[in-house]
């Protein structure tokens, strides 16, 4: 009976151990299944992240080969340079209300020259100063945007190198996306600022004082841009004692017969009598001949439009250095 009890207990314990072992195997299977599921989710997350990084890389490459290609960046640089070298003028427009009777006859008889003579010079100078500030702000903004575009272009190229070297983590991915968006925005802002018209000036007061005796024309002011004057390097030539200079305005279809130009001639190796500055002349044509020069000598020539009372901003002057021929 004891043996039977022992066998019973042994069989019972064995069954319990078997159940425990089976239960343990079930638990491990559950753990393995959970681990396999976790690994699958992790792998899926990694694949999704890599797809995102790859997509950002493709967008960066597309930007570098389109809007930030070497040719596109060169065009932006030339556009900026053109704006920086242009001259800006204050333009006055008449915004007359429709008068009646004698008022109509009085205002219609006022020529543009008369209107300019009636303008209060102190108020005109204030308008010119305000316009000068607006031009400087515009050029400064364009310059800063261009610098950010160049910096963004270099940063994006560096990020592409990191990606190709396998050095991209989550922080780098966020940086790539942020830099891509910023650079796109800088390019958009540059293009928009470059193409928008110069805004009309907000005059604080009327330029012509109203005395009350006669109606005065109401005036508004805006900015006008003129493309810089440059020497024609192909048409200009020298002899032993003279230089023929030719200049023009890029893109100008016809020459303005009323435009005057200021020509400066300077010897780069002057003697005691020359003092460096030889001549300054005014031309109403697009070419001139400078005579009485010394042979085998370097001279510097500059050309610009003659300054007018409504000139707001115009810092750049084209310069050319030529050497007269030896006799």
Automatic annotation (TrEMBL):
| Domain DUF5581, first and last residues per copy | 53-195, 226-324
The record, for InterPro entries, names: DUF5581_C (IPR048317), DUF5581_N (IPR049231), FNDC11 (IPR039581)
Pfam hit, one: DUF5581
Which PANTHER family does the record cross-reference, listed alphabetically?
Answer: FIBRONECTIN TYPE III DOMAIN-CONTAINING PROTEIN 11
Write down what this protein is called. Fibronectin type III domain-containing protein 11
Q: What is the lineage of its organism?
A: Eukaryota, Metazoa, Chordata, Craniata, Vertebrata
What gene is it encoded by? LOC108877483
